[in-house]
Design brief:
Blueprint (H helix, E strand, L loop, with lengths): L1 E4 L8 H11 L3 E6 L6 H11 L2 E7 L12 H20 L4 E4 L13 H22 L2 E4 L13 H11 L4 E5 H7 L3 H8 L3 E6 L14 H10 L5 E4 L26 H9 L7 H19 L1
Parallel strand pairs: 1-8, 2-3, 3-4, 4-5, 5-6, 6-7, 7-8
Helix pairs in contact: 1-2, 3-4, 8-10
């Protein structure tokens, strides 16, 4: 196992992210699923310069992106988007695409269970075929019920993976597991060899170590099933606008150049633009919590 991180949680140059995570002992990165933001040759050069490898990317399934949409054209455009993320990962010598099939924040279905199942299976199969051709693994990620109605638990993600292909896997996230599973450790065991990626944040979605999750037991369960991939940092710190705010340095007060879609994605997660000081501290705390457990 090794420590990785996403970078969608703060708008900043990739070089800034890479310099920071190298200092704290991260080995890889899951790049934000916006291929238009990353020139392949420039990104490869930056990764090489800082000694960080691309582990993969996560789909930012926002706006009209939805593999379970009723509208055929919308599904086709969503498939094209996922394929573009897969292609980006392949060009960066990455291994994984974490796939969230339905729009994050969408909690109302477009059709019956039978209709949506067919739509999402067919669309995911098309994405998976492209991934196979590019040498990239696909991991279906379930999210908690407040972010999607479609897949919330490991068993549901495995059901889609089974319907797509025996080599399709799943990605689990400790934050979502803690909300949705009867037993998060049994959920990890259920995934077993199909677990291709694992995202980490504490129960309050701050950095690992700032909540109540038992990281020693979580990592121990991952070792038990023989997991040898990344533990990818994905804290989404909730903003406190009251006099009780514990972190007064949290919110970035100066204008930051960020695409409106990405800003909405962050805000929809209950967060905001974070200061470099606060963000860097969260990266450090996760590293100090996780690295001793996986070394």
């Amino acid at each position: 196992m090794h420590l990785s991180t996403h970078n969608w949680m703060r708008a900043e140059p990739l070089e800034t992210t890479l310099r920071r995570i190298k200092k704290f002992g991260y080995e890889s990165i899951e790049i934000s699923g916006e291929p238009d933001q990353y020139d392949p040759s420039e990104t490869r050069a930056a990764l090489k310069e800082h000694g960080i490898r691309c582990w993969g990317a996560v789909t930012l399934t926002l706006g009209e992106r939805n593999l379970a949409a009723r509208d055929e054209g919308q599904r086709a455009r969503s498939v094209d988007y996922v394929k573009s993320v897969i292609t980006m990962v392949s060009e960066l010598d990455g291994e994984i695409v974490t796939l969230v099939p339905a729009t994050v924040g969408k909690v109302v279905p477009d059709g019956t269970e039978e209709e949506e199942w067919k739509w999402v299976v067919d669309a995911t199969r098309e994405c998976f075929a492209h991934a196979q051709a590019k040498g990239v693994r696909v991991a279906i990620e379930p999210l908690n019920r407040f972010e999607t109605y479609l897949f919330n638990r490991a068993a549901q993600a495995l059901a889609l993976a089974d319907a797509v292909h025996p080599d399709c896997g799943v990605c689990l996230d400790a934050f979502h597991l803690n909300i949705e599973e009867e037993d998060m450790y049994e959920a990890i065991r259920l995934a077993g060899k199909r677990l291709y990626d694992f995202h980490v944040a504490d129960n309050n979605r701050f950095a690992c170590g700032l909540g109540q999750l038992d990281w020693e037991r979580i990592v121990g369960t991952l070792k038990e099933i023989g997991y040898d991939g990344a533990l990818t940092n994905e804290f989404v710190a909730p903003v406190d606008r009251t006099p009780a705010a514990k972190y007064p340095n949290m919110v970035e007060r100066n204008p930051v150049d960020i695409p409106p879609e990405q800003l909405k994605f962050i805000q929809d997660h209950g967060s905001s633009l974070l200061t470099e000081e606060f963000y860097s501290d969260q990266m450090r705390i996760t590293a100090e919590t996780i690295l001793p457990l996986i070394r």
